[in-house]
Amino acid sequence: MTEFWVSSGHHLAGRTEGGGLAVTDELLLAYLARPELVPPDEACEAERALHRRLLGEPRRPVEPAEIAAMADPDARENWEMMLAFRERLLAARSVEAAYLNLVRNGLKGTPPIFLNQLVHLILRNALDGCEDPYVLRAGELFFRPQKVSLTEGRVLLADAEVIEARASIGRASPLVAMLGKEPANELDVMVDDNAWSYWSRSDAFTMALDLGSNPKSRDGLARVIGAWTRHLLHVAVTVTPIETMEDADWRWFVGLDAEATRIGNALWNEDSIDAETARRVLALFSLTFADQSRVDPRVGDRPVYLILAMAADGTLTCKPQNLVAGLPLIQSAEVL
Question: Which of 285, 291, 302, 245 is nearest to 268 (CA)?
Answer without folding.
Answer: 245
